Amino acid sequence: MIKRQLLKSTLAIALAASIVTPLLAQDKPLKIGVTAGPHAQIFEQVKKIAEKDGLKIQIVEFSDYVQPNAALAAGDLDANSYQHKPYLDNQIKDRGYKFTAVGYTVNFPIGIYSKKVKSLKDLPEGGKVGIPNDPTNGGRVLLVLQDQGLIKLKPDAGLRATPLDVTSNPKKLKFVELDAAQLPRSLDDLDASAINTNYALSAGLNPGKDAIAQESAKSPYVNLIAVREADKDKPWVAKLVKAYQSPEIKTFIQTEFKGSVLAGF
């Protein structure tokens, strides 16, 4: 009789443990990496929506574009939300990351800013123009300058164009490649600089009013949520994407970030 009771007790404890363990696992918040500015602001709202669906989120802010992917690869993050597809593809190719995009989010058109001229046509001969030093965002800016008629690129340069692909440069513009986060600070020293929207807003710039040129809102640079390939089918991933692509987040983005383009909503 005593042995039977002990066996029942043991089974009951084991059953309770099997039930409690997954519950405890769900209590651990997901760590989501974002860059400071719009991506962080949006995810503060996503966090509220996700919590209604039982998903707890801890937002981790970064000041550059390199560390969020490094942290995801190291297992310090569960997902990140800050980069566009061309940048992710380039990172996977160059660094061998085993990442995948699980949902598209928003596109913030990159802008060109200046404290010295009011339009691109006013750039002086030999003027210095700051561009991001990563291949995808640098190429993105060169395409804008080509669309504005300032330069011409090799026909096959594509999205990863570099200054070496410039075939015509009537104003003899000089391209200064800097880390994207440093470009707002370069405005005092350069004739113009191309700045990603998140860094522009953090620097107090208004993309709609202060940019002297912007890329088309229909560019291919749509941002996304990235996870490790091994995690892409986990239930929390679908919940996270659903929270981001909710009507509430759509309204928030359209209200707070006019001129941005939504994707996947």
From TrEMBL:
Localization terms from the record: Membrane
Q: Quick one: signal sequence residues?
A: 1-25
Q: Which InterPro entries match?
A: Lipoprotein_NlpA
Q: Which key words tag this protein in UniProt?
A: Lipoprotein, Membrane, Palmitate, Signal
Per the record, membrane topology reads: Lipid-anchor
Q: What is its main location?
A: membrane
Q: Which superkingdom?
A: Bacteria
- Record family assignment: Belongs to the nlpA lipoprotein family.
- Identify this protein by name: Lipoprotein
Species of origin reads: Hydrogenophaga laconesensis
